[in-house]
From TrEMBL:
Domain of life assignment: Bacteria
The keyword Transferase appears for this protein: no
Keywords, sorted A to Z: DNA-binding
GO cellular component: cytosol
Protein name (database record): Transcription regulator, putative
Presence of keyword DNA-binding: yes
InterPro entries listed in its UniProt record: Cro/C1-type_HTH, Cupin_2, Lambda_DNA-bd_dom_sf, RmlC-like_jellyroll, RmlC_Cupin_sf, TransReg_Diox_bact_type
């Protein structure tokens, strides 16, 4: 993942630093997060990229949100307007890449979500992109507006394919999943409170 300075965000190194700061061994964190011990080691050494659901579970073991993990030093709470290059790139190795190594899901956030208690995102899903078979669940509310393409959204027992001009709004504690349901890139403008990623 690349941050606003152009540097590559090292998921493994960040997790290692946070785990050590918490005074936990890999085994202790794995037990707290209810994940296999080997998974912590593989993520920290960047041998595997965790899914969003897996990273969320691990961070829960540290008492951290995804937003705290990805934007630990963001201070610009007073900034009102944002150029394209000032959006926070939350795209990471949390999902699959295409045959050219490009991320299948691209997420860019407006400003400091933690300071405002609101996360507003521009999301782009390439054909075949999917947030994963493990459904997401987190204490928040989220909604969005489909700008382009087709997105299949599953929320609890409900599932629908939405196209341009259609929207969604739900309690994020319900298990949910997003998937590009077409053969063209899909784009969504979304909001979540409190911030999730």
């Amino acid at each position: 993942m690349t941050d606003t300075s152009g540097d590559v965000f090292d998921v493994g190194q960040r997790l290692l630093e946070l785990r050590r700061r918490a005074g936990l061994s890999q085994r202790a964190l794995a037990a707290r997060a209810d994940v296999p011990h080997a998974q912590i080691s593989q993520i920290e050494s960047n041998r595997i990229s965790p899914s969003i659901a897996s990273l969320r579970r691990i961070l829960g073991g540290l008492g951290l949100s995804m937003a705290e993990f990805f934007e630990p030093e963001r201070k610009e709470a007073d900034q009102v307007f944002f150029r394209t290059d000032e959006l926070v790139d939350l795209t990471s190795e949390l999902g699959r890449s295409d045959s050219q190594g490009e991320p299948m899901i691209i997420m860019r956030q407006i400003g400091n979500a933690l300071a405002h208690g609101l996360q507003i995102m521009h999301e782009r899903y390439l054909p075949g992109a999917d947030t994963g078979e493990t459904l997401l669940e987190h204490p928040a509310h989220e909604g969005g507006f489909v700008v382009a393409g087709k997105v299949e959204i599953t929320v609890g027992t409900q599932r629908r394919v939405l196209g341009p001009g259609e929207a969604y709004l739900f309690d994020s504690r319900l298990p949910h999943r997003f998937r590009n349901a077409g053969d063209e890139p899909a784009e969504v403008i979304s909001a979540c409170t409190p911030p999730y990623l």
